[in-house]
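Subject: Interface between my chains keeps coming out wrong

I've been trying for a while to get a sensible model of this assembly. When I model each chain on its own everything looks fine, but I need the whole thing in one frame so I can look at the contacts. Pasting all components below, labels as-is. Any help appreciated, I'm running out of ideas.
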Amino acid sequence: MAGSMNEPVLEVRELSTSFFTDDGEVKAVRDVSFDLAAGETLGIVGESGCGKSVTALSILGLVPRPGRVVAGEILFRGRDLLSIDREELRQIRGRDIAMIFQDPLSSLNPVHRIGAQIEEAMRAHDKVAPRDVRPRGLDLLRQVHVPDAARRVRNYPHQFSGGMRQRVMIAMGLSNRPEILIADEPTTALDVTVQAQILQLLRDLNRDLGTSIILITHNLGVVAGLCSRVVVMYAGEIVEQGSTEQIFDAPQHPYTWALLRSLPRVDADRHERLRSIEGLPPDLIAPPTGCKFNPRCPFRLERCFSEAPELKPVGDGQVAACWVTMKRAYAEMGAGSLLDTRAGAASGVRPPAVPLPLAITGGSQTAGPEPLERE
Amino acid sequence: MSSAPSTEPSTGTRPDPSGEPLLRAVDVVKHFNVGVGTVCRAVDGVSFEIRAGETVGLVGESGCGKSTLARVLTRLTPATSGRVIFEGVELTGLRGESLRQQRKQLQMIFQDPFASLDPRMTVGDIIAEPLTNFKVVRGKAKDARVQELLRVVGLNPYFNNRYPHEFSGGQRQRIGIARALALNPKLIICDEPVSALDVSIQAQIINLLEDLQAEFNLTYLFIAHDLSVVRHISQRVLVMYLGKIVEIAPSDDLYSTQFHPYTKALLSAVPVPDPRVESQRRLVELTGEIPSPLHPPSGCRFHTRCPIAQVPGICSEEEPPLEEKGNGHLAACHFSAQVGAALG
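Reply #2:
Try treating it as a single job with all components included. I did that and got this:
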């Protein structure tokens, strides 16, 4: 692998991607910047529509119409992928940066044998010598633990289970020994036991081959198990970034903090009511002014309605975009014992005069005064 | 199951919450014919009970038969054999109007909030449909009831004239819940109600289900593949594998003690949002693939993937019965005593 551990292989600089729809410009990704160091495993987490997948597609020049990258730089080994020509980008894609997707069935061609598809991935680039292509295909299937690989290379995709198909996709992704593997929700469609096997496989590949991995997921448990650094996205922006320990032990953005507390844990000692995040993610055609999380944030201040916070250092290598940060929320707003998770509940800053038309609040709090009659 | 089926109560008697369970499944079997002489054993002899006011979780991986079981319990699909007894009435034998009347008490919430609501009906009509079907209320009273239900599930009561596409996934799931509540059911079967939702919305819906349970004295059968969610919401958890229940555990015990190696393997694979826990994970890895329900393995169905099976031997020859292991914990494994020690 080229470069030392600290040297970034990929630098994303102020990336903005929009979708130009009939309803207006959907600002899917805004001013996203992060580095990926050689051999690093980076998690990008967030909920649907937060821009995590669009960020990945932007890196590879795969943003579908009507979307396009509107600003920024994506530097791979110092070269901007957004300004090189299509053919050059096509060569980098699959050879140097490979991607695997959530649904392995729709990513495989149903009428070609598994072996042929892996070989095609290698023949498309000239990194592997033609006479090595076939044996390497078989090796790769063994490497991703497909049992009975010699026979299975002749199978078609429908003869593989979901987990096995995802192994095939990983084998294809690795076939040209890429420096970076981008995995977009690689285990979301899989059962939990199979998920654990695929994650183990990705861990081994990172350790043994030094492949840098960008893992895109909504599952914080998966990130905790695989990644060394985490980027948290909300409404198209990075709201927090830090080491996995920092993000899980001392999150500084209220969204990260709330997301972690809203998860039920299988190893919890006792039953506690989940602390949900009230409301919905914003509409990205007309996002709220100021901080985009302000309509859902228990700790918001007046300032959060008007001024958008920028990412600022909140720890050693940890950054968060928040006017309050959780340090202050714990010290001044009693975040540690907060039960009411409604917006402004901890800071006392209540909603502006005009409420959101589709605003919903937590379950029984809004139930009418008279209980439902049972017959 | 411990309760004796001899004391079959007559129709119409109110069940005692401490005695007769709200729902009892006895040896329920659902086989599908899939071509000449081939049978898919989707549910293959399942017995359990649900007591009034309880939340029972049902977990298992895709294809284990959990959704088929839900459909059999609600008689959306007829059972091949076995009995489903709800409030002392055997549902499996009912037809026509008497079945329809029983169904009032038994509602379902589905996984996909986009597919389970008719896009051409207003939200008000969707929620009112069961009220109309069963002629419970009419006219103004019906509108009032719909608005009340919307409020109960945390939606604006004046949304009744809107259409499903105007709502987000979480809000649609609330609409589905309002519809399920319309007839004041006793039991709600929730089939993967939160798996299509984002994390922050999941918590809202889980809390809503818990609040409604307390408010209306509901009983839930909660089906999901996510063990963390199931453990959180349930008092007891049923674990299914290839059409059979392999373990029934009080959820407080589930994480600390497992008597079936499959449960152990499932739990060992659940991701925990804590890097320290993750770094100490000891994965009980299962070999091979889940076998086809067309040709389930002989003896214990799990023996082909079990890390502690004796093959050839008792595990491949004899099917282990679901037995009490103490403290309301049941398991179907010949070597249940060794599970803890052998698999760490």
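Reply #3:
Confirming on my end. The CA atoms of residues 266 and 372 of chain A lie 33 Å apart.
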